Amino acid sequence: MILPWLILIPFIGGLLCWQGERFGPTLPRWIALLTMSLETILGLWVWSTGTFTYAPAPGADPTWALEFKLQWIQRFGISVHLALDGLSLLMILLTGLLGILSVLCSWKEIQRNVGFFHLNLMWILGGVVGVFLAIDLFMFFFFWEMMLVPMYFLIALWGHSSADGKKTRIYAATKFFIFTQASGLIMLVAILGLVLVHFNQTGVITFGYADLLKTKLSHGTEYILMLGFFIAFAVKLPIVPLHSWLPDAHAQAPTAGSVDLAGILLKTAAYGLLRFALPLFPNASAEFAPIAMVLGLIGIFYGAFLAFAQTDIKRLIAFSSVSHMGFVLIGIYSGSQQALQGVVVQMLAHGLSAAALFILSGQLYERLHTRDMREMGGLWSKIAYLPAISLFFAAASLGLPGTGNFVGEFLILIGSFVSAPWITAIATSGLVFGSVYSLIMIHRAYFGPAKSDAVYKGMDGRELIMVLGLAVLLILLGVYPQPILDTSSATMHGVQQWLGTAFTQLASAR
Amino acid sequence: MDLTIQHFIALAPLLITSITIVVVMLGIAWRRNHSQSFLLTVAGLNLALLSIYPALKVAPLVVTPLLQIDSFACLYMGIILVSTLACVTLAHAYLGEGKAGYPGNREELYLLILMAAAGGLVLVAAQHLASLFIGLELLSVPVYGLVAYAFFNKRSLEGGIKYMVLSAAGSAFLLFGMALLYAESGSLGFSEIGKAIAATGMPSPIASLGLGMMLVGLGFKLSLVPFHLWTPDVYEGAPAPVAAFLATASKVAVFGVLVRLFQISPAATSGVLSDVMSVIAVASILVGNLLALTQNNLKRLLGYSSIAHFGYLMIAMVASKGMAVEAINVYLVTYVLTSLGAFGVVTLMSSPYSGRDADAMFEYRGLFWRRPYLTAVLTVMMLSLAGIPLTTGFIGKFYIIATGVEAHLWWLTGSLVVGSAIGVFYYLRVMVTLYLQDSKIQRHDAPFNWAQRAGGVMLLGITLLAFFLGVYPQPLLTLVGHAGL
User: Fold this and answer.
1) What is the pLDDT of residues B19-69, one digit of tens each?
2) What positions does the domain NADH:quinone oxidoreductase/Mrp antiporter transmembrane occupy (chain A) (predicted)?
3) Nearest Cβ partner of A146 from B389, B418, B428?
4) Rounded CA gap, A441 and B446, in Å?
């Protein structure tokens, strides 16, 4: 029974926040904070009690650490089928943690319609948790689309329009919505195609993961259906050339929105690839792997170059996400256990570091009222703590040893080298560009001649706790990632077996 | 043929509606009273709605060669009666009480709407071209009057005349098509026509032409592209509750008979006609959605969006096998719920009548800060029209996609995906307008106590239903599952 509660808590909390606004603007914040803390505590409790050696693997019916099933729509064999393994647990923990942070970071920023804001925030997080838990494909899609609406509101109502007024927040929000909605519908078509193929083989109509895994697909069908899934995930991850919604959405969103977008929403795509696209269509995925890895490679460089060219600090961080997700994509399609484990660490580390960078740029915006780096400069001595902490996270983002990002990228590269040495070698050089854009960000914002004499308020306790907490976690992840690796190992082993078998079959066929 | 009590029970919904018409008319002749006419109408419609249950018990039953009462007809009768009830409730709020509100005679609106509903009931039970035509005219003719009901308003009058002329043209096409079909098959019954066509294998050119012309005639009523030109003007001109009727009951009835015609004579949809229908579907989806993009008038926007929605329905029509009928039924139910909700909000915003309806987009700017719950209703409806999960619209769209995939209609399914992506843009535009900063210029607003009136209560009920069926659609699917052909 704990799984449905993990989803319900944010939804109920959101409604309470909305109604809580009647009693003043502070109450919704506390309710939201409590909700997300409860979610995180529940997640931690599951982590401490669960056995994560159970995970889906080829050959047998999937086993799970926790499972919950309830009939929903009998007509189509759809059930409320939730299940949790190591990977979903880690993602939920990240969601809970970033949930707390997004409440905290909007404590001062959001002053209008506080209740409605937190309703949307909680519902996004609830939808994301739903995505991480659902293993009924209908339900997965249900949550996948559902979380768009509150995110749309978050950007459209509380976002910032760009300084030149060319790109409004509504433009960004609509773009985000249409991109994800359209690609989502393509996935729905693919899901229905898979279900109908299964129906024609067995006479049973079902959206269940375990049943659909057994579907036998012809070569062409498998490839097309895989592409349907891949496009939806490619938009969300995002993969160049389907990324153009991301910088706009990030730049225009309020801080909490950016934190959620970069920290968790992008991870739903990687999760979807690992949970659904690879196990359901292993052969087509293996065949597609070189293309996907090249796309990842393009993403790494394209993201890095464009990040370097940005003047808006939030757009810079957004493009750096494109670059980082390129590594994730290469890792996912490499088919090695090491690289897949690296993907998990990289997802967590990127979630933490991108969130921290967005929070810091939000704090900068609260002080300077601009995100344009051309108007910054020389801030190093003017704001207590903030520049130094920014430097730390910029260093983490470029993959400095000692931080989680290093562990992730290292594992991905070393794991992929066996199967794709050339791609890995080129990807490694992408790290250099990572350093360039990270450092140039720090340089432009904090060093050089000062643009004005104003001295800004230093960081207060709330702001410090948020980013320092993230820094501690990032270092922990960097020096002792073993607990994380242990938790996700069974899941990743399963994925690796699916893909590995397909790779050997492909090699022998050639 | 003898009519037994069974037959009368089967016909009860139609008979009760007809009796209500007479009673309301006599009531008006006796004493002009708005509330009295309203109450009589509502009572009659409710009785008719209740009488569907016994009718279902004796179904399927052929009542004269003209009508067949089966579970399919009963479902559609239910939809028509429910949407008529909703429109009547909205009309009561719209016409207003006492001095405030509509200045002319208010009572006749109920009369006209009841007659149109009776026509709809005939139409969905029709299994004969004669009853099809009778039902269609009985449905359309009162609607001319309804559209032009606010005749001192130029747009309303314009809409009424436009609808009349084009509807008459549509009827002419329909009659010509029927004549050709009769010449070919020697019969007017749906199943006989179907047999005659099936006997020749492929429909002969004359039969194809006849069916094609019938499709043109019915396409006018359904405002499928390229027969859609009247839709935005009429939707804009018609008083809001009438527009709601036009979008729901009227279209559902016509689509019902179209489904029955093509399901009873499946051979009719083979060959060229299937291609024609595919083209119409794609054109409706794309044109409807694209033209809706630039609208700044909510009623026009909903008009264009309804063109697109009937384009989606045509996909299931083209598929015609497997889940198609079920998908159409589900989609129509969700569409009716959603349209009623959306037009309901427009109606309440324009209530009581004061010259022009509140249908310009800027009048909805910042509505959230003035009428939060009314805004919630419109938000749910917009999301449902866009087919986002948690609303019924998603279930409908899911069904249509499933049907398209099942029948391997890739181009049609693809155009649905494209159409929805375009559609999202303008639905979101409406939605976000509601939440923007308040504008200073407002002419209209819903009365403060809108939620305590019949129209408001009904609207909230529809919203809850739209939400509930989006989360747990099984009851709807079970209901519709029994209503196949």
Assistant:
1) 999 999 999 999 989 999 999 999 999 999 999 999 998 888 898 889 999
2) 134-429
3) B389
4) 52
Give kind and range of the element (H or E) at residue B353.
Answer: none
Please report residues of B whose CB lies closer than 8 A to that of A156: 428, 432, 435
| Total tally of structural domains belonging to chain B | 1
CA pair distance A180, B256, nearest whole angstrom: 34
Chain A CB contacts of B388 below 8 Å: 145-146, 148-149, 181
CA distances from A243 to A180, A256, A315, B393 (A): 11, 20, 12, 28
DSSP code for A261: I
Per-residue pLDDT, averaged over B295-299, amounts to: 93
State both tokens at A363: 């704090």
- Chain B environment of A170 (Cβ under 8 Å): 432
* B330, B401 Cβ separation under 8 angstroms: no
- Please write the tens of the pLDDT for every residue from B370-410: 888 899 999 999 999 999 988 999 999 999 999 999 999 99
Instruction: Name the token pair of B76.
Output: 């559609």
Alpha carbons B382 and B342: distance in angstroms, whole number:
7
Q: Is the pLDDT of residue A499 over 70?
A: yes
Does residue B53 belong to the interface with chain A, where contact is any CB pair within 8 Å?
Answer: no
A-chain residues within 8 Å CB-CB of B390?
A: 142, 146, 149
**Tokens of residue B32, six digits:** 């002009």
Token pair listed for B196: 């005659």
* 3 state DSSP class of B484: coil
* DSSP strand pairing (B61-63 vs A78-84): unpaired
Angle at alpha carbon of residue A6, lines to A54 and A346, rounded to 5°: 60
- Closest listed residue to residue A260, CA positions, set A108, A105, A390: A105
Percent of chain B with pLDDT over 90: 68
> pLDDT tens digit string along B155-171?
899 999 999 999 999 99
Does position B268 have pLDDT exceeding 70, yes or no?
no
Does B401 sit within 8 Å of A189, measured CB to CB? yes
**Contact between A152 and B428 using a beta-carbon 8 Å cutoff:** yes
Q: Are B362 and B439 in contact (CB under 8 A)?
A: yes
Question: In chain A, whose CA is at the least distance from the CA of B408?
Answer: A193
- Cis ω on the peptide bond leading into residue A483 (within 30° of 0)? no
Is A476 a residue whose pLDDT tops 90?
A: yes
Dihedral sign, Cα of residue A189, residue A191, residue A196, residue A197: positive
Taking an 8 Å cut-off on Cβ atoms, the answer to whether B424 and A146 are in contact is no
With CA atoms as reference, report the closest residue to B257 among B340, B143, B135.
Answer: B135
Task: Note the maximum CA span of chain A.
Answer: 75
Residue B442 has pLDDT above 80, yes or no: no
Cβ distance of B401 and A173 shorter than 8 Å:
no
Domain boundaries defined on chain A: 281-510
pTM: 0.93
Which residues of chain B are within 8 Å of residue A141 when distances are taken between CB atoms? 389
Contact B312/A at CB under 8 A: no
Q: Which is nearest to A101 in space by CA: A392, A366, A475, A462?
A: A462
Q: Which of residues 444-483 of B touch A (CB under 8 A)?
A: 472-474, 477-478, 481
Residue range of the domain that includes B175: 5-481
How far is it, in rounded angstroms, from Cα B384 to Cα A145?
A: 13
Angle made by CA atoms A343, A346, A350, in degrees to the nearest 5: 140
Is B402 in the A-facing interface, judged by CB distances under 8 Å?
A: yes
**Distance (Å, rounded) from C-alpha B485 to C-alpha B483?**
7
Q: Please tell me which residue of chain B has the smallest CA distance to A194.
A: B405
- A329 burial type by CB count under 10 A (0-12 exposed, 13-18 middle, 19+ buried): buried
Which of A170, A182, A192 comes nearest B432 by C-beta?
Answer: A170
Q: How far apart are CA B38 and CA A125, in angstroms?
A: 47
Rounded average pLDDT over B296-324:
92
